[in-house]
Amino acid sequence: MNEGMNNNFRMVAKTLFGFEEILAKELRNLGAGNVVEGVRNVSFDGDVGFMYKANLCLRTAIKIIKPIHSFSVRNENELYRKIYAFDWREYLSVDRTFSIDTTVNSENFTHSL
């Protein structure tokens, strides 16, 4: 996945609860596109250069995430099926490992941050 400096993509800036509006204003002031406030996050569009700029300049963001895949699930089995079905070869080989950082708000998933 090789984005050029002018190819925009979706990103998510994680923040603390209550800081979403402030973070959204910071992003708009930096020049982010399509800024949308969420719960403990603000999503926005930008290119690779803007991703670096956001990491350096944002005061209220904890981290910037570039999602590679998203989906909705209703239960644990559906979660495992969708993760298993995703083509991970574009991101890592079979001899590599990775961690998933997620926040889930649901009574179906009780072992989440």
TrEMBL record:
Determine if Transcription is one of this entry's keywords: no
Q: What PANTHER family does the annotation carry?
A: RIBOSOMAL RNA LARGE SUBUNIT METHYLTRANSFERASE K/L, RIBOSOMAL RNA LARGE SUBUNIT METHYLTRANSFERASE K_L
Q: Which UniProt keywords apply?
A: Methyltransferase, Transferase
GO MF terms here are:
RNA binding; rRNA (guanine-N2-)-methyltransferase activity; rRNA (guanine-N7-)-methyltransferase activity
- Protein name, as recorded: SAM-dependent methyltransferase
Q: Which PROSITE patterns match?
A: THUMP
* Domain THUMP, chain residue ranges per copy: 50-113
Any one Pfam family match given in the protein's UniProt record, by short name = RlmL_1st
Show the taxonomic lineage.
unclassified sequences, metagenomes, ecological metagenomes
